Amino acid sequence: MKRLHRNHDDSDPSLSDLENTRIVSKDLNIKCVPSLKLLMAFFLLSLTLFSVLFSLSLVLRDPPSDSVPQHPSPTTTTTVFQLKQTEQGLNNDSSDSVMLHKDKLLGGLLADSFDEVSCLSRYHSVMYRSGVNGLSDNPSSYLTSSLRTYEILHKKCGPYTESYNKTVEDLRSGRLSESSDCKYVVWISYSGLGNRILTLASAFLYALLTNRVLLVDPGVDMIDLFCEPFPDVSWFLPPDFPINSQLHDFDQNSAQCYGKMLKNESLTSSTLPSSVYLHLVHDYDDQDKLFFCDEEQRFLQKVPWLVMRTDNYFIPSLFLIPDFEQELSDLFPNKETVFHFLGRYLFHPTNRVWGLVARYYEAYLAKADERVGIQIRVFDIGTGPFQHVLDQIIACTLKENLLPDVGRTKDIISSSGKPKSKAVLMTSLSSGYFEKVRDMYWEYPTLTGEIVGIYQPSHEEHQQSEKQMHNQKAWAEMYLLSLTDNLVTSSWSTFGYVAQGLGGLKPWILYKPENETAPDPPCRRAMSMEPCFHAPPFYDCKAKRGTDTGELVPHVRHCEDMSWGLKLVGNHV
C-alpha cells in the first residue's frame, strides 16, 4: 500500500498578497491627485482588499470540516503503513507509503487502551480489510458494552489480583467461598490450532454469559501466537496455579468430571465442589452433554472454578439453552456474526506472526485487483497430490467464476486496456496442487485476458501441531486467507472455518470426495460465515428425550459439509 505524505504549509499565504497591496497603494498615491473623491475611492478599495485577504487567510489556515481531521476522534486513527517491513512489523523509515483513515477500534469492538507497538496487528490489521472498520457488519452496542464490562471484571479478578489470590487459596484448601464475587472458567489447550481458536472463542462466550473470568492454559505456544486481548491483566493461567499439573490428565474418568458426578449421582447442594472438570471433547457421553441443559447450568453457576477441555466449536448449542436465549439475542442480533466478532476481538497475531502476514501480503497480494483464497485439507490416506482433488478444485473455481478458464489451443489472447489481475493464495500441506494450478496459468493464456498469479506460503507435508514455527506459519496462513475477497474451503476443516470467520466471508465449500472421485457438483456456497459444531448433542432437555437439535430454532441449522453438525445462520436464511 502506498501512502501520500500530508504536507502542512506553515507559511502565511496572506504575506505575499499584503506586499502586493502595498505596491498597489503606492501606485495609487503616485498617480492620484489630492482629491476628496479619489481619497474616498482609495479608502474603499483598501478596505475591500483587506477584507478579502483576511477571509482568505482564515480559510487556508482552517480547512473545511470534510478534509482530513486535525485531531482524530478516539475511535478513528490515521494509520501509516509501510512497504518496507521488519520481522517485528512495520518500518517507519519508508518514503513510499499511504495514509488512510480507518476505525482502528472496529466499531467499538476493541478497547483503546493498549500499547500499539507491543501488538501491531491489533490496530493495524484494519488497514488490510475493506470497509471503514474492516468488519462484515457493525457490532451491537450491547456487545461492545458487555465487552467493556467484562474487561473491568477481568481486571478485578485476573491473575494475581487480590480477588484471584483469595479464590485460589480457597481452591488450594478445598474450601468453598461464598463471599467471592469472582468465578472462573479455565480453558485447557488441546488439539490442533484451528480447533483451539474455535474452542477458545466458545469458552470466552460462555464466560461472558455466566459472568466468569476466562483463564487460558498457555500450552506450548499460545503466548507466541496471540497477543493479550484484555487490557492491564493477562488472560494466561499463571505457572503456579494449584492444579496446573493435573490439567492435561483430566478425562471422563476423573473424579472431578461433571459427567461422571452426574452418572454416580454424587452431587447435592450440600456437597458443592470448589471445582468441576467439563469434558466437552468429541467423545463425550450423554451425561457430559447435559452441560447444555438449563438445569445443569443453574447448578454449575454456583461452582467457583470450571475447568474445560473441548475440541468443538459448541456455540450453536449455547443458543439452544433457554436461559441464555435473550442475552445472546441482544449480543448478536445477526446470529451469523458470532465468531466474526469474537474472533476479531480475541485473536491478534503476535508481532512475529504479524510480520509473516504483512510481508507476504505486501509482496504477493496487495497489488492485485482481486484476491482469491483456496484452502485445501485432504483426509484421504496416502501420499498426494490426488488428481481427483485437483480436478475438484479446478471444477469449483471455474464453475463459480472465481477463476478464468484457459485457452489450451492458443498461445496468447490480447485484451484492450490494462488486464485485470487476480492473486490466488493456496494453502495446503502439499505443494502439488499449487504447482499444478500455477503451471496451468503459466503455460496457457486465460480466455478473459486476466493475469492470474498463484502463491503458496508453505508446504509442511504433514501436520506438526507440536512445533512452534509450524503453528506460527499456520496462524499466518489462516489470517492471510481471511484477507482475501473470495474463499474456497475444504469440508470439515477448522483451518478454513477460522479463515472464513475472521474475514466475514461466506466460502464455497468443497464437498468431501468419496471413493477417490471428484464430487459433482464440486462445491457449494455456505449459508453463513459461521463455523460448524461437529459433535452437537441431540437431546431435548425439557422433554428429556432425543431430538433433532437442527430443527428447533430457525437460526441453528445443520452444516453444509457435515450433515449431523450444527451452525448458526443469519436472519435472512
TrEMBL record:
Residue ranges of the TM segments: 38-60
One term of GO molecular function: galactoside 2-alpha-L-fucosyltransferase activity
Superkingdom as given in the UniProt entry: Eukaryota
Main subcellular location: Golgi
Alphabetical keyword list: Cell wall biogenesis/degradation, Glycoprotein, Glycosyltransferase, Golgi apparatus, Membrane, Signal-anchor, Transferase, Transmembrane, Transmembrane helix
The keyword Kinase appears for this protein: no
GO cellular component: Golgi cisterna membrane
EC number: 2.4.1.-
Enzyme class: transferase
GO biological process: cell wall biogenesis; cell wall organization; xyloglucan biosynthetic process
Subcellular location: Golgi apparatus, Golgi stack membrane
One protein family per Pfam: XG_FTase
Topology term for the membrane: Single-pass type II membrane protein
Family listed: Belongs to the glycosyltransferase 37 family.
Function: May be involved in cell wall biosynthesis.
Protein name stated in the entry: Fucosyltransferase
